[in-house]
Specification:
about 150 residues, alpha+beta, Immunoglobulin-like, 3-stranded antiparallel sheet, 2 helices, 6 strands, about 20% helix
């Protein structure tokens, strides 16, 4: 049997290459970083909650252009306080027939294209959802104001 000799340089290069491949694989296929937590209500926003009112909230369902069910929550948000609202988001909590939470979606009700909501005004909103799990109980989800930003 022939005697095979491997130089120390070859061993170091092979170990370095394996280490680089291992790091690349871990960074590519390893654990994904956790998404940042959603912003929490500031103290100022918490105190302003009583000045915002959701009203005429109702649901409707339709089929969208790919024949999937589209559930829409429609309603109005009123700003009864002294500040202009630049952005407001709600968290919609969907439940199954046993009352267990099965989905949580965050949606914009003030901001974006319609712009800010001045004091004393009310504006309509439309929240479309097409990814609600099949186990949803078909009841109105719980709507919680999750974020408020002022101008």
């Amino acid at each position: 049997m022939p005697d095979v000799k491997v130089s120390p340089t070859t061993i170091v290069m092979a170990l370095g290459g394996a280490l680089i491949l291992g790091i690349f694989g871990w960074m590519t296929f390893g654990p994904a970083p956790a998404p940042p937590p959603p912003p929490k209500l500031s103290q100022e926003a918490r105190e302003y909650l009583s000045s915002l009112k959701l009203s005429n909230v109702h649901m409707q369902a339709a089929e969208n252009y790919v024949n999937a069910r589209l559930v829409e929550i429609l309603g109005e948000i009123g700003n009864n306080g002294p500040k202009t609202i630049k952005l407001a988001e709600v968290t919609c909590v969907f439940r199954d027939y046993a009352g267990q939470e099965i989905a949580r979606e965050r949606a914009l009700v003030v901001g974006g294209r319609p712009g800010p909501l001045p004091p004393g005004q009310t504006r309509s909103f439309r929240l479309p959802f097409d990814t609600i799990p099949q186990t949803w109980n078909q009841a109105m989800p719980t709507l919680v104001i999750a974020q408020i930003q002022f101008e």
